[in-house]
Specification:
alpha+beta; five-stranded antiparallel beta sheet; four-stranded antiparallel beta sheet; about 30% helix; single chain
Length: about 240
């Protein structure tokens, strides 16, 4: 707990803080060089996303600080706006070279980095992923998901798959239960796939946001699917009250 408190205190260096128009403080990453100015299109609502001066803007409005990793920034920008803020804050806390989160993220590594490689997933992409190990041309491939279309938090921009990389060797580091990454994610209101009850379905790279509690996961997914199919969306995303 004392280490976490010290890590938070280290974020208060004015040189590493950006305050947005709403008075919110954001960490400016320092470990990597800033990305070149770039723009791309949000996959959900087709709005323009721009990265400039370490800041990510969606349709001209500030969204979150850049992580200085191109694909991670793109994956975050396509998430549901609520999940987007949680993940940008979490990743920047982990990756910022000025705080202790970076050296405690994984138990046996002193120079790790956290990269998102999967986030929002179209229903058609979910169907393609579900076919792996089951049908058609993908029948002989390994199973990569247990969820059919609209039965995954990925389909609503409420889940990410991330990996921890050893910056010295480039090797992937397995995410474990006692890693600070898992603790921080849970404090951000995220569930960890490593806690899934079924051993067969445990998914350590997976982190998701649960927007409403139900007695079973099936009822929760029914709730999300109904909102997606039958309720008016907000900028292409389901509304979260």
């Amino acid at each position: 707990a004392s280490d976490e408190k010290q890590a938070l205190n280290n974020l208060n260096d004015d040189k590493n803080i950006f305050i947005d128009d709403n008075g919110n403080k954001h960490v400016i990453p320092t470990k990597r060089k800033p990305l070149r100015k770039q723009s791309f299109t949000n996959r959900v609502n087709r709005k323009t996303i721009k990265i400039e001066n370490d800041k990510v803007y969606v349709n001209g409005k500030f969204s979150h600080m850049s992580t200085r990793h191109r694909n991670t920034d793109k994956e975050i920008a396509n998430l549901h706006p609520i999940m987007r803020k949680k993940m940008a804050s979490l990743i920047n806390k982990i990756n910022n070279s000025q705080n202790k989160y970076r050296v405690q993220i994984s138990n046996n590594n002193d120079n790790p980095d956290c990269i998102i490689y999967g986030g929002y997933r179209l229903p058609a992409e979910q169907a393609e992923a579900f076919s792996h190990g089951r049908t058609g041309k993908n029948k002989n491939k390994p199973i990569i998901t247990w969820a059919k279309p609209l039965r995954s938090n990925h389909n609503y921009g409420l889940a990410v798959d991330l990996t921890v990389v050893d910056l010295k060797t480039g090797e992937l580091i397995q995410i474990k239960k006692n890693d600070l990454l898992v603790s921080l994610a849970k404090k951000c209101g995220l569930n960890w796939g490593g806690d899934f009850k079924s051993k067969k379905k445990k998914d350590p790279p997976h982190f998701e946001m649960i927007i409403k509690k139900f007695s079973t996961n099936t009822k929760y997914l029914d709730y999300l699917e109904n909102k997606y199919l039958n309720e008016q969306k907000e900028d292409g995303y389901i509304k979260i009250n």
